[in-house]
Amino acid sequence: MPSVGWISSQNRNRIRTPPHLQLQFIMSRKVVRSSKFRHVFGQAVKADQCYEDIRISQMTWDSNFCSVNPKFVAMIVDASGGGAFIVLPLSKTGRIDMSQPTVCGHTGPVLDIEWCPHNDNIIASGSEDCSVMIWEIPDGGLTTPLKEPVVKLDGHSKRVGILSWHPTAHNVLMTAGCDNLVILWNVARGEAMVRIESVHTDMIYSACWNRDGSRILTSCKDKKLRVLDPRKGTVITEKDKPHEGSRPVRAVFVSEGKILTTGFSRMSERQVALWDPNSFSEPLTLQELDTSSGVLLPFFDPDTGIVYLCGKGDSSIRYFEVTDEAPFVHYLSMYSSKESQKGMGYMPKRGLEVNKCEIARFYKLHERKCEPIVMTVPRKSDLFQEDLYPDTIGPEPSVEADDWFAGKEGKPILISLKEGFVATTKNKEFKVIKSLMSTTSSSGGQGHGNGGDVQALQKEVKELREMVEQLTKRVSELESKS
Fold first, then answer.
1. Which among 180, 330, 182, 309 has a CA at the least distance from the CA of 252?
2. CATH code for position 161
3. Helix, strand or coil for residue 28?
4. Which range marks the domain in which residue 179 is found?
5. Residue 334 pairs with which residues in a beta bridge?
6. Residue closest to 375 by CA, chosen among 447, 320, 432
7. pTM to 2 decimals?
8. Residue 286: beta bridge partners?
9. Distance between CA 271 and CA 318 in Å, rounded?
10. What is the pLDDT confidence band of residue 463, given thresholds at 50, 70 and 90?
11. 429-454, pLDDT tens digit by residue?
């Protein structure tokens, strides 16, 4: 028989916990939100899978400095006598040789780069030299320095720091410069189709599309958040001072047209807020995070509803789930490391390893290397996890540039990631209509050269037609003899 002083562990807990705290604990157990992303696990890859000995740009511009797709990783690097970025096939890990060729056509430092979502070999770059250039990277990467772009877009009078390809329209690119100007380009024609002027009264901090490209969202140094009609260039709705602080604000569209912003309070505390553009007066939620000075770059995954916040100069990546229930933006977890990040690339969903339950992959830039960081949801089953991988946006555009500028909308064309993604269609071919290109840098001699190209092409087509006619005639003669 137990002694008088013995108390069961169950009774001991009951005795030591006051009744009001017991009730509080039971209630908190009931209100813990269930989510399949509560245990998202971030992990850096092994050292031999990093890209070493790369001189990452020392520029202080607040862009990602890195862009990735299922074929390549591109990073802005230090370059003497102009601006450059390096493009590597994903498989080319380890130490990168100093003689590795770069894309080096700009005369000023490169500020932003972005891969085309509809062709994994096409990348755009914006620079301090006020120009935007479109480059075609050969499969397997560069073997010699690339100095001549496929298209050069001249229209900004100050440096160009923001680039964003249209998510569903082929060959439509948005650029924003320090001249407070947003330009929408038909890249195949080399033409500025829409110039959004006199809307922004100061420098533009961020500019992005919504999921189907029917709206543009900008944040500006004049402390205003604006939702624009891209083809008309008009303001649909705007919000004054989404964050009280004077430091830069970043904004992205999230699920159901809502807007997520990152900024600073009056006391320089970093904040994240969620807004409904239909009632901009008050945020749906506003949370204070910490007192660090780095601008938080948001990356939103519409398939999972997770937003990842990566601060320049931070050594961590926070992630939150955006839902329809208060407080709307739910903190999930944080990936931490010892070294701070100078930039961050974000892999499109179709480039992930679905058999490893990978839901996101970042490419973190250090002083001298690029380190992939993998986000996974641990699962015991080896089967395809349909709840983690709903159909996602694929590489096929749903509308051509000319049609989109004429008013046609294009919804995203979704693909399944089951069995790993295998491309069923070729990269959307990047065609430049040379005879219709009209950039301000085109000289009379260049225009004459373009006309010569067209004449040569027409001659070649004529010769091919004649050859086909002769062959058809020959086949007919042979058939009649038999």
1. 309
2. 2.130.10.10
3. helix
4. 46-198+337-417
5. 318
6. 320
7. 0.81
8. 273
9. 12
10. confident
11. 777 765 444 333 333 333 334 445 55
